[in-house]
Amino acid sequence: MGATKTEHFTEKQNQIAILAKALGHPARVAIIEYLMSVDTCICGDIVNVLPLAQPTVSQHLKELKNAGLIKGNIEGNAICYCIDEKALKTLQSYFAAISSHLEKKKNNCC
Amino acid sequence: MGATKTEHFTEKQNQIAILAKALGHPARVAIIEYLMSVDTCICGDIVNVLPLAQPTVSQHLKELKNAGLIKGNIEGNAICYCIDEKALKTLQSYFAAISSHLEKKKNNCC
DNA sequence: TTTTTATATTGCAATATTACGATAATAAAT
DNA sequence: ATTTATTATCGTAATATTGCAATATAAAAA
């Protein structure tokens, strides 16, 4: 064993889990924050910004891309990675819904 | 190797990563959603609701608790787990900030 | 007190993640 | 055509996660 039983959960639950998992590493959070901070879309300096070796950064970028959090095109020997707004909007909506639900409830146990 | 290099990232980045990682599994997303759906705080039926064995569920609950997403007290031989609103508020604020930042920017590359 | 009920812990096997050196691939620059 | 610069892939070691059977723990019920 060791493999997640995705088939037992809803599409939505799996989707949120995939996005959350992709952000479940500080390097990937840092990458998203960096992509937000730069104006340009070409940003070959991600490797220099992060305290990790180039193959490791490349791997993290791949995971963010697989999860759908970033989009990337190859521009010559530079990369053009940027945030996929749709994915982040999904997360924003999800947690906004949870928050408003919790506020309505005001349950005060625990 | 294989251990995350947390020390190279900011407190905030690590905090978000910890919360996101905890939600990086559909079972744990399902648990949060279930805790939201029930009115009561005592909810010993989590095990019956999920398609996983009892020790596995117990482990997922432990991880959610470690990450700070749920709070739990033992109430006799039942458990009282509930959502820690603070943690979910943190996530809500974080993604709200990202979303509003992205909307302001309207970058249209990629 | 013994049984029942409910959750936690232990131990283990299967799998996944993290990290990086070495190397490949690719395109711009010389 | 060769060099240079940049990103991707491969291979591998260390560690973490996932899942569950077996067992422990703890309190209510009998």
UniProtKB/TrEMBL annotation, chains A, B:
* InterPro entries per UniProt: ArsR-like_HTH, HTH_ArsR_DNA-bd_dom, HTH_MetalResp_TranReg, WH-like_DNA-bd_sf, WH_DNA-bd_sf
Full protein name: DNA-binding transcriptional regulator, ArsR family
For this chain, one GO molecular function annotation is:
DNA-binding transcription factor activity
Gene3D superfamilies per the UniProt record, alphabetical:
Winged helix-like DNA-binding domain superfamily/Winged helix DNA-binding domain (1.10.10.10)
Family matches, as Pfam families: HTH_5
> Please, which domain of life does this record's source organism belong to?
Bacteria
Q: What does the UniProt keyword field contain?
A: DNA-binding, Transcription, Transcription regulation
Task: List residues of the HTH arsR-type domain.
Answer: 8-106
Keyword DNA-binding attributed: yes
